User: What shape does this take?
Amino acid sequence: MSFAALILISIGLAMDALAVSVSGGLGMEKPNFKKAFKMALTFGFFQAGMPVIGWYAAFGFKESIEHIDHWIAFGLLVFIGLKMIWEAFHEIPDSKKTNHFETRTLLFLAIATSIDALAVGISFALLDIHLLAAVLMIGSITFILSFLGVLIGCRVGCHFSRWADVIGGVILIGIGIHILLEHTII
Assistant: This one.
C-alpha cells in the first residue's frame, strides 16, 4: 500500500472523530486546550488501537462482529445525541449535562467512532500491510484533526449558545445514521 493511500485511509477513519470533536467543542464557552488534548489523545489512541485488535483477530473474529459493529456505533452515538438535544430544551444543571470530555462519555464516543478502524485492521492483516506504520499514521492524523475539531467547534459554538447542544446532538445522530446506512445498504 502506498504512503498516499495510507494517508487517505487515515483521514477517512478520522472523519467521525473530527465531527464528534467539533460537536464537543460546540458546548465550550472558551477554548480549553487541556480538554482538546484529552479528547484528541483518546480518539487518536482508539483509532490507532482498533486496527491492532483487528490485525490480531483477523482470522475468525471478522465474521463474529461485522454484522453488529455498525449497530453498536449507531446506538452509542444516537443515545448521546438524543440526550444532548433533550438537554438543550430542558433546564438541566450544568453538572448533569452531557459532557463530551467526561471520561466515560469520551470512552463511549471513542469506541463508537473507531469501530471502522477495527475492520480496517482486519483488512490490513489480509493485505499484509505494515501494522506499525499504519497505526502511527492513523493515530497521529486522528489526534491532529480531533484537537483542531474541538477548537473549531468552540469558536463556532460561542455564537450559538443553546443551539450548540442541538447542533452537536444532530451531528452525533447523523454520524450514527451514516455508519448504520453505510453498513446496511452497501
Remarks:
- The CA atoms of residues 1 and 129 lie 7 Å apart.
- The chain has a mean pLDDT of 81.
